[in-house]
Design goal:
Layout lengths: L14 H18 L18 H16 L3 E4 L5 E5 L7 E6 L13 H17 L7 E5 L13 H6 L5 H6 L8 H7 L11 H5 L1 E9 L4 H5 L3 E7 L2 E9 L3 E2 L11 H19 L2 E10 L5 E2 L2 E9 L3 H22 L2 E10 L2 E2 L2 H10 L6 E4 L4 H5 L5 E6 L15 H19 L2
Helix pairs in contact: 1-3, 1-13, 3-13, 9-10
The protein binds zinc ion (ZN).
Zinc ion binds next to loops.
Protein name: Allantoate amidohydrolase
Pfam family, one: Peptidase_M20
InterPro entries: Amidase_Cbmase, Bact_exopeptidase_dim_dom, Peptidase_M20
């Protein structure tokens, strides 16, 4: 990150507070930055329950203890740092995750955790008097890079993943999730739903780097989430006929690659017309020989849209185009929906409260990415803040937020926590 630069323009009334908040953010960020970074790619490899993740968790614990916060690990390995009594109820909780995708960026997750501690520092500097307990959290295994399922820590807590299902999760080396937790020094014996803990939370606010360019386009450093778009994955199996690439006349071929290609183009068209997203990014080909017409092309479609009706329309359009192409080229087509996540609407009352606390004109935006906040929203009133990411790039070492924007995010989060948890 760049060094802290003074903001241009007239001094903000809380400029002195901002300067020390910027310093505490900067110090934590510098401290955490080298952990789990790959020297060659420059990306992060902080996979759940590995050495890098353990180092991140040690960092979290040290931050909690250095502030005199009450430190806890819950039954699912999620970390908590409490200002006030964890058992009092109606708590205001903020935080995110510290794990990463393979060669991930620095901000996705850690920005929320670092900003949460920095926002607490800011509130203490303001002399805020807490009327409710406040906690900073680090949810375990949000990205799912190691065990193939996202948001494991929050899913377990919310009862969206059973202990039995969690015991079945294996990494690429066949190590089960409980064994991995154990190896990292975390007791897995009680993993499972944690309704009593969630019942003690009055509001959960997750700050996250934006994974798109809406704030860059609108010219705002910080925004509020409206909803997480519904999204799903579909498998398209295009069955044709394998044959010799050098001797089979074009007229005689049943080439599923043609239908696949036309379907990819149709997906792009349907998504563009609907203002949605559709991506074919994974493909399997049989027999996968350079001189053999394929017998099978299997392609996976990921599609997301702002609402269910739009998503249904996009998928119907893509399916129709795929069937028409299949008929044209003599291909047998089968389509199966492999997963689906309905829209997550963040609680309107909390969202409106945030907008009020942050002043008028703050943008409210949807996102296509999943988050712990989305998982928890079924159990707890939940909201999200986004910090501008000028390139919109995420899940890549190029992911970025300017330090001034990060500090603006910290101040916004502090304002929200003060409004929700202080007199
Ligand atoms: Zn994230």
């Amino acid at each position: 990150m760049s060094s802290v630069a003074p903001a241009d323009g007239p001094p903000h009334p809380s400029a002195a507070g901002s300067a020390s908040t910027a310093a505490s953010f900067h110090e934590m960020w510098a401290d955490l930055s080298p952990v789990g970074r790959d020297d060659d790619s420059g990306g992060y490899r902080r996979y759940a329950w590995t050495a890098a993740d353990t180092d991140c968790r040690a960092w979290f614990r040290a931050q909690a203890e250095s502030r005199g916060l009450i430190y806890e690990v819950d039954r699912n390995g999620n970390q908590w740092a409490w200002q006030g009594d964890p058992l009092a109820g109606d708590a205001v909780v903020t935080g995110s995750h510290l794990d990463s995708v393979p060669d991930g960026g620095a901000f996705d997750g850690p920005l929320g955790v670092v900003s949460s501690f920095a926002a607490l520092d800011e509130l203490r500097r303001r002399g805020a008097e807490f009327t409710k307990p406040v906690a900073v959290t680090n949810f375990g295994d949000e990205e799912g890079a190691r065990f193939g399922l996202a948001c494991v820590g929050s899913r377990l807590a919310a009862g969206r993943l059973t202990a039995a299902e969690a015991h079945e999760l294996r990494d690429a080396d066949g190590v089960s999730l409980p064994r991995a937790m154990e190896a990292a020094g975390c007791d897995p014996s009680a993993i499972g739903p944690d309704p009593e803990r969630l019942a003690r939370i009055g509001a959960f606010v997750e700050l996250h780097v934006e994974q798109g360019r809406a704030l860059d386009v609108s010219g705002d450093p910080v925004g509020i989430a409206s909803a997480i778009w519904p999204h799903g994955r579909w498998r398209f199996d295009f069955h044709g006929e394998a044959n010799h690439a050098g001797t089979t006349r074009l007229e005689d071929r049943r080439d599923p690659m043609l239908t696949y290609a036309e379907t990819v183009v149709a997906a792009r068209r349907e998504a563009r017309l609907a203002g949605a997203l559709a991506t074919f990014a994974k493909i399997a080909v049989e027999p996968n020989g350079v001189n053999a017409i394929p017998s099978l092309v299997r392609g996976w479609l990921d599609s997301r849209a702002a609402d269910q009706e739009t998503l249904d329309r996009v998928i119907a359009g893509i399916e129709q185009a795929a069937h028409e192409s299949a008929t044209r080229w003599g291909i047998d087509l089968r389509i199966a929906r492999e997963s689906f996540t309905p829209v997550v609407e963040f609680e309107h009352a909390l969202r409106d409260e945030l907008a009020k606390l942050l002043g008028g004109g703050i943008p409210v935006l949807g996102t296509g990415a999943g988050h712990d906040a989305g998982i928890l929203s079924a159990s707890v009133p939940t909201a999200m803040l986004f910090v501008r990411n000028p390139t919109g790039i995420s899940h890549s070492p190029a992911e970025y937020a300017a330090e001034d924007d990060c500090v603006a995010g910290v101040i916004a989060l502090a304002d929200v926590l003060e409004g929700l948890a202080c007199t």
